[in-house]
Specification:
The structure is a homodimer of 377-residue chains. By secondary structure, the first copy, chain A, is mostly helical. Helix content of chain A is 78%, strand content 1%. The longest helix of chain A is centred in the N-terminal third of the chain and has 34 residues. Chain A is globular, with a radius of gyration of 21 Å.
Chain lengths: 377, 377
């Protein structure tokens, strides 16, 4: 028993050292990014690439493997997931309804069109490259699934990365900023539906009702959050005892966020939507914001860089080769063009100025690294 | 790639749900404990036992396994380790030197004697029960190692549990409280040395220099912390820029704590000592305390209950059986008597009043559950 406990402790200790390395590297490269007038989050993702197989892993002795052994990575992921979920909760909380509601129709319209255009470009690209990439890990991938997958990959906006850029730059309270985040939310929900659909297609014995089930369950969950959890929270929070015991309040609210994140993940969407939704239905009492939002923000700010760096760790730029780079460039080009055009035109038609439409298009172009890595299949 | 990411996400999501369950159960049973005038931490450990195999796991369908599957427990452990380490850092920071220094000699004296008496009782108990427990998992355990192990198990004070009780009850700034913590620190360092020695003995090809190596390395580390890290921190923290960017300061200090925790764990002591030591050498500027201690405390307060509950989860009171319970009672009796007598007498001889000596003895009797579980081998 003691030996197991000891080896578990040793792994936890390596995880502590890893988090320390990640925090310091993220701090330094985040500063560098700010000095170069880039978002801090870009510095953190680059920190991950630097610590990963693309750079540190090429040094003799593979320091990346030594520093981040395979059995410790899930622990880091788990810690970063907590940071991410709490961060999305804060974003949801700050996502002012008054700014969104008048634009809700616009957001849906822009999102649908931008997804449609980017998705079309993805399918086009898939038609071009499918012959060379039809077999993945010895399995034949049918063109339909491949095209759906490419289309989805190209139409996704990286919700957490965009949210991070908007909060860092204090753009969340502007019209374009909140519109971009609303569009990205609609986009991402759409993308998760498409992904659920694709995986149902790829599985031979696939459950073709999956899409319907995900849709029905998530509608139910949104209804429960708005019509049951929101009034309950509002009543709970107004009790003076609740605001008195800050530690208990923090614990209870974080438990709620984690639970909500788990529900959306169980439904088949991503955990971040549950956290975002919980933030969205939180009461907006100023006292509550001061006492609760600050500590949650501090916790998320501490662990969030781990998420971006772990993401970067998974990327091996060196493994692409020349052909890979060419394909990457064309894919990125198609993705950017699709997103930019698909966002700007409906935005302009819906009454935004050209400048606003362009800014929105650029913001919607925010991508995570996962989307790029996916193309290396 | 996407499938792996999805299954990893699903595991992280279960971990989120688990943390939520843990937080809520801990909150409720912690409140109950406070209402019963017991330390909150007792409620949290009981919460772990309730959620574990002793109670919830006996219900049909084994809800404990469903709720806390084996592949998620390391993730929970990892999260709780972060809470524990940050908590020990805060304890180290609050552990006022002026209170300890005049008593340092006393602390060492009391600790050594209390360990010696409790250790002797452990060896005695080992002589009684060794014939019935000589074979563990099909391997013969020599009496020497068994006796050393029992002695160590009985002489340990649960440092984190004691620290938690002292901070919850605001006893850390009292003479007896700080003395108890100092004694527990000395005790635990001693116990880890003994444990290193035992494991060197048990391993046939054991490295008999282990004890010497652990000793030399830890002396070096303490010296580095006091003569290099402490002045460096003091200088860093006095720069106005450092206090200006709170988020960066929080990140840097947490990174330092994690790194220090890893160093002591790598040396062969426990990670908590590194965290405690880092807190001990932190500058005590009031501004710094306000800006930095509060967020660290909030983070640790959120995740620390997970540690106590995960500890409780590992306990199966039902597996003991009648003979086991008898042995448990005698072992606990021996442990308590050894600790109480071993603490009170040297404390009284060193000039404490009988009341203080008794309080110190009771506090030093704080045990973790690990010590009890260990007896079930």
């Amino acid at each position: 028993m003691l030996t197991t406990a000891a080896s578990q402790d040793a792994r936890s200790a390596v995880q502590l050292a890893d988090i320390a390395v990640v925090l310091v590297t993220g701090l330094v490269l985040g500063r560098l990014a700010r000095w170069l007038r880039q978002p801090v989050v870009i510095g953190e993702i680059v920190a991950g690439i630097v610590l990963g197989p693309s750079l540190l892993g090429r040094l003799p002795g593979d320091p990346t493997q030594v520093l981040f052994p395979a059995d410790v990575r899930p622990l880091l992921s788990a810690v970063s997931q907590i940071g991410l979920v709490l961060f999305m909760f804060v974003v949801g909380w700050e996502f002012e309804k008054q700014l969104v509601r008048p634009h809700a129709g616009l957001a849906v319209q822009v999102s649908l069109l931008s997804v449609a255009v980017a998705f079309g470009m993805g399918v086009g690209l898939a038609a071009l490259i499918h012959p060379a990439h039809a077999t993945v890990a010895g399995r034949e991938i049918p063109f339909g699934a491949f095209a759906l997958f490419m289309g989805t990959a190209l139409s996704v906006t990286a919700f957490p990365v965009l949210a991070r850029i908007l909060t860092d730059r204090k753009l969340l309270s502007t019209r374009v900023g909140s519109l971009a985040l609303a569009c990205a939310a609609v986009d991402d929900v759409l993308a998760w539906y498409l992904l659920a659909f694709v995986s149902a297609l790829v599985k031979a014995d696939g459950d073709h009702m999956a899409l319907l089930r995900v849709g029905a369950l998530s509608l139910c969950y949104v209804a429960v959050m708005f019509f049951a959890v929101r009034p309950l929270l509002a009543r709970l929070v107004r009790r003076p005892a609740a605001l008195g015991d800050r530690a208990a309040l923090l614990t209870a609210v974080c438990a709620g966020v984690f639970l909500s994140a788990w529900v959306t993940s169980w439904i088949g969407l991503h955990a971040i939507f549950g956290a975002f939704l919980f933030g969205f239905v939180m009461p907006r009492e100023p006292d509550l914001a001061r006492k609760l939002r600050t500590p949650v923000e501090q916790i998320s700010r501490l662990f969030l860089p781990v998420f971006f760096i772990v993401t970067g760790l998974g990327v091996d730029l060196g493994a692409l080769g020349t052909g890979g780079y060419l394909m990457l460039v064309s894919a990125v080009g198609a993705a950017c063009a699709g997103k930019l055009i698909g966002t700007m035109i409906p935005a302009r038609l819906s009454g935004l100025s050209w400048t606003e439409a362009r800014d929105l298009g650029v913001l919607m172009n925010t991508r995570g690294l996962t989307e790029l890595v996916v193309l290396n299949a």
